[in-house]
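Good day; I would like, with your permission, to put a structural problem before you. What I wish to show you is a protein chain and, alongside it, a tokenised description of its three-dimensional fold. Here, with my thanks, is the record as I have it:
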Amino acid sequence: MGKGGASIPDEEWERFLKEAEAGGAGAPEEPSARARMVAQRLREEPGGPPEGWRTYTPARQRKGKGWAALGLAAAVAVVVVAVGPWGIADWFDGDGTGATPLAAESERPTGPPAGEGTDRPPTLDEPFRGSPAARWSDGTAGIHLPEAQATGWMSRAEVARALEKTRDFLSASALDPAVLRGERPDEAMALINPHQSDVRDFLKKAFRAPDRENDPLLLFSRFRSSDVRPAGDVVKTRGRVTFQEGERGAVQVSTDVTYVYPVVRAAGGDDEVARTIVRREVVMSWDDPAKIVIEPGTFSLVSYKVDTTNGGCDTYTGYLTPAFLAERAATRPDGGAEVDPYDRSTSMEERMRESEDEGCGTASRS
């Protein structure tokens, strides 16, 4: 459990659901991630039919490797493997040592970050050397929060608090050291509205028996501690949070963050550093309790997407599984587009459309 976290036992989930079902006429509605997603798709694409929140669309496979789409607008995973015959020095563009830190990302960039060639691979002392992430901020400092203003049912102060709790969720789901070691993300899950029965079912299946359709990595970053350990105590991040008025006066908050995790083999005796890069977009709704059945201090999940580089290809263990140089050389894919995992100039939606007919693909850098 993360520091200060609060777990929600199955009995509590059941109690919340029973209370919601017992509500009479005129009572607040129980939220549905599926319904929210359908409404969002209708607003964004009025000319086309929306996909269901739990709809599964199988992707074309390339020699047993591919990416899964789980209700494209709501739960999407794209995986990219960082493999190739090149040396590790070519795997990391640019030195970055002593470089000036970038300003916070307040809007979408116009292109991918520049890189410079280097003959020096990353080390335990400099695990981000040669990567654009060397200029990124550490942890939550790299997640830009906008200035709060009164929106929907919330005052300015309440929106500011919702934004802070949104960042708390991102930290608890993708930065908490215990969660990264593979522990259950109780603190993060405690922030999700327990009255969303579809989300609750997804989470229960994802942690009990992860598979392609129920993968905890869609929302949480976890490594198996018996396989790898962190190369240092820093995770580099870059991303931003935005908000607008949503359904029934709710405050809808959208997050788009890229996380860079440097790791080494857990067995020791080898200082080779590999990096796993995860870009995750999570949309949440901070609902008016007078209109939606919700527990205080929690949000309703609207949608999520994830794009993973060097975290495993077509594997559904519930853990990110980074490959090191030897494994990358042995598992080079023969199909799929080349992808720059540091390029944040393309939206996640565009990224999914561009990759929907491809295999795992190859990272241009990591």
